[in-house]
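Notebook B, p. 112. Complex prediction, attempt 2.
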Amino acid sequence: MPKLLKKVKLENPQIEIRISGFGGQGVIMSGFIIGRAAALYEGKQTVLTQSFGPEARGGSCSVQVIISDNRIDYPYVAQPRIQVCMSDEAYRKYGGYLGPHALLLYEEDIVRVNKDEVASWGNRALGIPATRLAEELGKRLVVNIVMVGFFSAVTEYLKPESAKKAIQDLVPKGTEELNFKAFEQGYKYGKKMLSRIK
Amino acid sequence: MKKTNPKAKDLNHATADPKGVLTGVHFMNGDQSACEGALAAGCRFVAGYPITPSTEIVERFASRIPTVGGVFIQMEDELASSIAIQGAAWAGLKTMTVSSGPGFTLMMEHIGLAAMLETPCVIIDVQRAGPSTGLPTLPGQADMMQVRWGSHGDYEVIALVPNSPQECFDLTIQAFNLSEEFRVPTFVMMDECVGHMAERVVIPPAEKIKVFNRRYTTLPIEEYLPYRTGKDLVPWFVKAGTGRRFHITGLTHDERGYPTMNAEAQGKLVHRLVEKIRTNAEQIVRFEEEDCEGAEVIVLSYGITSRVASRAVEMARKQGIKVGRFRPIVVWPFPEKRIRQLAGMAGGFVVPELNYGQISLEVERLVAGKVPVTLVPHGGGTVHQPEDILRAIREIVRL
C-alpha cells in the first residue's frame, strides 16, 4: 500500500488506474508498461482496456489498467484510484471522476489543476514537469516513461525492477538506455517529492 | 461387408508443431492471442483483407509467419479471402481468414460454399457495431445470428465465443480442431472489447497442446469415394497425388462428388450437412455455469457482456437475490439440453447482449414459456451499464 494512500480501507482490494492525454504522448504505451510489469513481473491479475480509433492517434486518448490479487471479471474503470492526466483536456474530462482518496498525477506544465478543489474531494494532486524532464534527456518522446517512473515512485504499486523489465520488453531495440534514464528521472522526482510530503 | 473409414476415436490426437507455438507467459490483447492460437493449432495459410477491429490478428500473422513457415496473402477483398483459404485447405493446409461485420457480410457466399464442400477452415469475426459500416472502432455482438444463418440454404456451423485474451488463444485452437473433426467452417465470434483488451496469456509447451490433424482416407482406391462416410457422417479427405480421383462442386452432389440434380441426392446431402453437427452436438457444446440450479434468476451472457454482467450479478447477490450465471462458450450448436433442464429449475432468465435480441430468441425458444426471459438490449458502441442488467434481474424477482 503506498504511503500516500495508507489510510484508505478499500472495499475491493483492486487498484484501478486511468492514464489520459492526447494521442502521440505514449499514453497507451505507458498503460502497457504498467500492465505488463504487474502481470508478468509482480504476479498480479491485470486487465488493460484502451480507447481505440482516431482519437488514440491525435485526439484525447486514455488507457485503463486494473491490478488485483484476485480474478478480475468486470474489466472497466469507473472511479480510478490513480488518475494520470497528461493533457488539460484529459483533466477536464476525467479530473472530476476520481475514486475516494485517489491520487491525481499530472503534467504540471500542461495541465492547470485546481489543487484546492482536488483536496476538497479528499483527493491529492501531484504534478511533475514530465515533458521538460524528457527534453533534458534530449528526447521529448520519452515523456510517457518519465511519467511511469513518477507513477512507480509515488504509488509504490510497481517495483522499479518490474517496470524496467517491462520497458525493456516494449521499447524499440537500441532505445533501452534512454528509456531507463527517463524512468529514473521520473522516479527520482517522485521519491524526492514523497520525502518532502512526509 | 461394406468397409468404411475407422471412427474418430480410433485416431490419436496429435500434439502441436513446436514451430508455431510461442510458449511462455505473455501480456497481449485478444487479437494477438487469437493469432497465436491459430499458429499453435497449425494454421499455415491466412488470406485476409484487414479491417478494424480485427486488424491486429492478420498484422501479427503476417509478421510471424515467415519464421514459422507458411503464407499470408493480403487479398483484394473479403470475397477473395474467403475463397482463397478454401483453395489452400483443399491443398492440405489448415487455413483461416479474419474480418469484422462489413467484411463478414461479403464472406457469406463462400461460407455457404465451405459448408457445401465441407471445407475445414476457421473464420474469426471481431464484431463491431453495425449495420453496414457502423462504428468501426467500437463493439457490437450483433452478428450472432448472421453466423448461424447468413448464407442461403440449410447447413450447420460451429461458433465459439471467447471472453478473454486467454480464451482467444484456447478457443481458436479448439475452432481449428472442431473444423477438422467435423469438416465444417468454424467461427470464433470475438468482439472489439475482447479483441483490444490485454491480459496475461499463458501459452503452454507444444507437447501440451492437442491438435486434431486432417483425416485422410485409408480405403483402397476401388472402394474410396470422396464423400463416402461412416456413422459419424463426416467424410475423410483424399490426399492429392495418391491416385484417387476427386471432384468438388457447389451443386448438389452424391458420394462421388458429382453434380446430381434430384431431390433424393439433395435430401441425402442436406440431411448429412445438418445431422453431422446435430447428432454430435452434445460432444461439441461447451458452457460455464455457476449457481444456476435453484436460482431465482439466471443471467445468460457471452463475450464481453459476460464480464459486464458479472458486476450486475455481484450487486444482485449483495441485495440477497439468488442469481446464477450461465455462459455459452460454444454458441452454435447451442447448449439446448442444458437450457431446457435449467428452465425447470430457475425462476427466469436475463439475457443482456450488444444487439436487439439474438441469442435471447434461442433462449426463449428453449424455455418455451415456462419462465420469463428478459432481453437487455443494447445498440453497441459501448458495453451495458451493470445497473441496467441489475434492473432486469430485480424485475424478474419483482423487487
